[in-house]
Amino acid sequence: MKLRRNFFRYFFILISLVLFRKKVKTNPALSDYEELTGFRYYGQPSKYEKIFRWIIANASLKGNGLSYTPLSKLNGNITPNGLHFERHNYGVPVIKPEEYKLEIIDLEGQKRKIGIEDLKNEKLLTIKTFIECGGNSNVMYNPRPIKSSVDHIHGLFSISEWTGISLKNLLKEYENLYRNKKNIWIEFTSFDKGSYNISLPIKVIKEKSMIALYQNGEPIRPEQGYPSRLVISGWEGSTHVKWLKQIKFRNGPAYTRNETSRYTDLLSNGKARQFSFIMDLKSVITRPSLGDRLKKGKVLISGYAWSGSTKIKKVEISVDGGKSWKKADIYQEKISVLRFNYIYNWNGKETVIQSRCIDNRLRIQPTREQVIKKMGKNATYHFNGITSWKIKANGEIEHIYI
User: Fold this and answer.
1) Per-residue pLDDT tens over the stretch 305-349
2) pLDDT digits (tens, 9 = 90+) for 118-146
3) 158: which strand partners?
4) Residue 30: what pLDDT?
5) pLDDT of 199 strictly over 90
6) What per-residue string of b and e applies to 26-36 under the rule 16 or more CB within 10 Å gives b?
7) What are the phi and psi torsion angles at 72 (to 5°)?
8) Rounded CA separation 398/369 (Å)
9) Are 116 and 122 in contact (CB under 8 A)?
10) Distance (Å, whole) CA 21 – CA 218
11) Which among 85, 179, 184, 298 is most buried, taking Cβ atoms within 10 Å?
């Protein structure tokens, strides 16, 4: 297996990757004034809470790796900024806002540069949406189930409220250049050391897309793309270019590494699926998860369900390994992701719990077997199958295949 195609999928056995688990400091040193007044300039979690992200990093290349959102430890429908997942190829660039310029290049090669203050003075809009890495959950393609928690399996998924400038409004003056032309694409390039870039079809302008400046009300943090990033509601994480440097109109795709060798699916029929972009319907149980030990009686089963293109109509829970399904309570919002809850009266016997979602087109989340049949055994990206969790007689939780 080539390292390039299996970075995520086989991260536990790659020699170049190391797992860091260090004590997390939730109470950094206070200034003298904070000590004196009893107030803080910036609030911090309680010292009694130990919620942190797991980091998978490349030991030979600083800044290359990822961190997982601890889904099993969170509730609600917003991921705290400090717990949003990260995926970096070349580290986090340091960009001074006063020096920042976003360059726009039209089809004729004409350039325009916009500073951060000019961007902030544009009409702003807010979108609440999820971002999911195209490689999220791809350990589910492994022939044997990994014995890990939902955080490691599905944690390249986070939910935030993003505020910024509509891509359509930002590029409005270029509308006449592409209105009656076919096969117009836009290439987005990053300020990171590798000049990460990806090209998207012109239809991206019509989507819920923006140049985001704020995340959950505060300026985007460096690891999330400060001072600006692309956000496209429902599209895979690779399209959400961080540290945005350049927007360039093109006559066709750029066929960059990030849209050819990466994030392209070699299907079971031998064909390659490229430019899939939109994330399919999916649900995951976040509680209970590996590490929990249940007691006989009432058990809360909860998690997330989402879709990049449709509205989730309902979520169903199985407590008998998929033999029967019962409707879960859902907390619906006018966004592409929701929370679900289901109360299960566990009798203390071994069983298997699962979740599946159904969208407004009546599409049903597929089983793992159905996904593999479609995607093939060498798949790396875009896994959206059902996850199975065994509740052992002693109350322990284990990830299994059925």
Assistant:
1) 999 999 999 999 999 999 999 999 998 777 789 999 999 999 999
2) 999 999 999 999 999 999 999 999 999 99
3) 131
4) 86
5) yes
6) eeeeeeeeeee
7) -70, -15
8) 19
9) no
10) 28
11) 85
Cβ within 8 Å of residue 94, ≥6 positions away? 222
* Contact yes or no for 17/58 (Cβ under 8 A): yes
Would you place residue 243 in the very low, low, confident or very high pLDDT band (cuts 50, 70, 90)? very high
* Third-level CATH fold of 282-400: Immunoglobulin-like (2.60.40)
**CA 41 centroid distance within chain:** 30
Q: What HEC string does the chain produce? A: CCHHHCCCCCCCCCCCEEEECCCCCCCCCCCHHHHHHCCCCCCCCCCCCCCCCEEEEECCCCCCEEEECCHHHCCCCCCCHHHCCEEECCCCCCCCHHHCEEEEECCCCCEEEEEHHHHHCCCEEEEEEEEECCCCCHHHHCCCCCCCCHHHHHCCEEEEEEEEEEHHHHCHHHHHHHCCCCCEEEEEEECCCCCCEEEEEHHHHHCCEEEEEEECCEECCHHHCCCCEEEECCECHHHCCCCEEEEEEEECCCCCHHHCCCCCEECCCCCEECCCCECCCEEEEEECCECEECCCEEEEEEEEEECCCCCEEEEEEECCCCCCCEECEEECCCCCEEEEEEEEEECCCCEEEEEEEEECCCCECCCHHHHHHHHCCCCCCCCCCCCEEEECCCCEEEEECC
Sign of the dihedral defined by the CA atoms of residues 250, 251, 257, 258, in that order? positive
Distance CA 12, CA 139 (A): 10
Length reported for the chain: 402
Q: Which of 144, 86, 95, 139 is nearest to 115 (CA)?
A: 95
What's the whole-model pTM score? 0.90
Q: Is the CB of residue 394 less than 8 Å from the CB of residue 349?
A: no
Closest by CA position to 389, among listed 344, 357, 361, 351: 351
- CATH code of 97-271, in short, is 3.90.420.10
What is the residue whose two structure tokens read 């065994």? 390
As a whole number, the mean pLDDT across the chain is 91
Would you list the domain boundaries of the chain?
Answer: 3-86, 97-271, 282-400
Separation of alpha carbons 105 and 112, rounded Å: 7
End-to-end CA, the chain: 26
Residue (of 157, 190, 184, 159) closest to 171 by Cα position:
184
**124 C-beta neighbours (distance < 10 Å), count:** 16
